[in-house]
Amino acid sequence: MARMRDQNRDGERLGAVFLLGLILFNPLLVQIFDGGADVALFGVPLLYLYLFIGWAVLIGLMAVVTERTSAHAGATREARSTIPEDHLVDR
Amino acid sequence: MPEQRVKLDRLSPRTIWWIDDMLPGWLIVVASFGYVSLLFAIAYYGDRRADRGRSLVASPYIYALSIAVYCTAWTFYGSVGRAASSGVGFLPIYLGPTLTFALGWIVLRKMIRISKVHHITSIADFISSRYGKSHLLGGLVTIIAVVGIMPYISLQLKAVSASFIVLLHYPEVTIPGSPARMPLFGDTALWVAVLMAVFSILFGTRHIDATEHHEGLVAAIAFESVVKLIAFISVGLFVSFGVFDGFGDLFGQAAAVPELARLMTMDAAGTDWVPLTLLAMMAIMCLPRQFQVTVVENVDESHLNKAIWLFPLYLLLINLFVLPIAFGGLLRFPDGGVDADTFVLALPMAEQRPGLALFAFIGGLSAATGMVIVATVALSTMICNDLAMPALLRFAWLHLAEHKDLSGLLLGIRRAAIGFILLFGYLYFRLIGESYALVSIGLVSFAAAAQFAPAILGGMYWKGASRRGAVAGISAGFLVWGYTLLLPSFARSGWLPVTFIDNGPFGIELLKPYALFGLQGLGHISHALFWCLLANVGAYISVSLVDRQSIIERIQATLFVEVFRQTSTGARSGLWQGTVAVTDLRGMAERFLGRERTDEVFGEYARRRGLTLVSTANADGELVQFVERRLAGAIGAASARVMVASTLKGEGVGLEEIMQILDETSQVLEYSRQLELKSKELEQASSELKAANERLTELDQLKDDFLSTVTHELRTPLTSIRSFSEILHDTPDLDLSERQHFLSIIIRESERLTRLINQVLDLTKIERGRMEWQMSDVDLCEVIDHAVSSLHHLFEEKSIAVDVNLAADVPPIRGDRDQLIQLAINLLSNAEKFCPCDTGKVTIDLETGATGLTVSVADNGPGIPLQEQEHIFEKFHQARSENTGNPMGSGLGLAICRGIVEHLGGRIWVQSEPGNGATFIVNIPYARV
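ok -> structure tokens follow
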């Protein structure tokens, strides 16, 4: 049961990451970082840095959420075998 | 090292001859063939491994890499081209899939689960199955997919052909001539198409398999993903750090050129940012090849977990150098003489790096071939299963339905379909592929695939979506797509008059395909996407709402939408309980299987069990289950179960009622699931309660014991006080010494009484926090000395040796001196209590530690059993004497000790081995300076 709830939780977390992505890549927000060629960090336009770093952060969050699940699943694999399959599959 | 370099320089004109000034055509051809042969080898090995049951693709990494077939030649060459004209405008195509994969847990997982449960083999199969196994819908989806994807396949062939021509002119960087004007047999694209057809036929149609897994093919695709990634990054690194001096230099130089500086703004990306992101989000789900690798070829649902972030990471990596290469190319070829789509090749060539250029070409080749292979296999499956077979089965004169084994025919159709797809793809490229830049063709295909998105997503989450709704939506979307994207592309290729685009058909301005109903200010793709989706979703929803679903649609809708619940109940198939006459069961089965088939089923059962079925007798559970399984093959497992269940109740029911039962059943299932949850929670709560109750009983027992001990302890001194007082009272002529003796006993017993009562009071105070602590810096050595001397006579009485070892220079601790003395006395008297007479020995150690003082009091008494050690500091608890079983003290001393130590922020514990004495250890932190 605890596992099931965790899974639901991770679905919700990834949903939140999705929403964060919508916000990060929204033109309205991207515009804030759009300074053209003049605004640059280490010579790289801020716009490019923002988009790629934002993207990387998003992927990082997705990795953290799913990898934690996998680790958890590994830890409870023992317990899992004792639970009838039908308790696990529901979302 | 320097010596080696010299040697290499000296050898280079002869040994590495081609590095210098030429890259002969035969070398490119040999390298390409070598690469494709390697693909064949990998696929062959992958299939061999799969046959032996040691799957090569059972890894989330291979799975994620195979999904990267998303990155085609269009990514490899076209992204740079797009970046060169629109800056970050190429990014939405990759941000979209990232966002979709963030939702992968919810959406993709459900798609995969549904497809596994229902043995879905393609996206057409998925949609047709959801909407009542409609042949019409399956065929429609297949046609749209073929029409929509064909240009995309042509695009890959064109890319290979064009890049080959560019590379052939090495070291001269030329504008690629028109590959379509090459002689037919000298055209690389033709040979690539032929090779890919052979590959797809060999590894995509080896056998007809229920799971439709092509492990060798997937392994090869994953390998191609690695190659194209490394190739692209190599070029990117070379441009960024070889040609230019890092990103800063590159972007700095570009910023100095006004036209290039313009590309560094969002304005360059245009208004298409959001629509393109949305388009890519749908494409990653709906492109037939993505459905093939993500859903159909998925061997383990859990692989999706890693792919959720690995695939977006891949996209990030392959896009990292798009902008540097684009700007590098624009700076290196400022006059616009070189097509930006070929920068990936042209830059290494212009810098005299034939090896790198060749590698880049191979990377592009792998990107193109990967897409072609998977798309062709996916389309051929769809053409075979959803177009050819339903049509063939309809022709009664073929008698196909009576054939037992159709797998040979299926394979033949698929192979022919692969050949046709690649042939048409090639023809398309020769005839029409010239009119568009690479990127536009790709997006046109994306938009076609996006027409499936409403039907797929709606189908997975909305039970009310109907077949006619899906047909209407997909057709409407497809028609608008054809009008706003396909026809204009014909017009641009000269097949239709250009006035069609400029003035609209028959001069009707409102119907201009790029500005339908006057909608302007959007890119062609965004414009088309808006109208397509409007038509598609509008028709889909409105028709579904007014429509009435057929039975099979409702069954399939329930099975799809509630897939997680369905699979969870599917496992729970016990034997049937209840009664049904054999004849009733037979009657029910006949309606679904037909008389003949039903006779067979019942006959088979009777034969197997070696008995004759009496039609009036009740069917046993096994027969019911047997019939249910056979029925499931015809009408699906869930409906078969409901059907059988309805019969068991003794009522024959109509299909309409079954549907209601099905709905009710799922509700009942939901309730029972909730019930199960609740009862689990209850169980847990009651076990907690039980534990608490046990604890309470234990405490109650302890209290009773304590009370009896205390009363016993109180009574003993009281009895002696009373009896001696009576003696003194009754015999006034007692002599003085005796009188003194009795009085001293009375005094001692009174003291004992007082002590006991004080202990009880102290403990109560400590526990309630009412003790008044007079905190000061205390020298623990002095405290121990004091305690030892005050107990001196006790030790002497029992001849117990006391050994005190105090460390030198003991820093003070913060505490209440009186309480600390109490602590020491309690520990010492506890030790004394358990020491044997004459041979007893008590050792007191005081050591300084890093954070506090450690006092240990060891005795050589009987020790404390392990199970007692946990409880020994609890109040009311008393170690029982081994011999008598009677408590030996009030059971409060150690509880008080713990109270004091914990108040001072320290710790107390015991180490003991039964038979070897016990050591009580106290750790008290130093006074904070």
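Residues 1-20, 568-577, 649-654, 881-887 of chain B have pLDDT under 50 and may be disordered.
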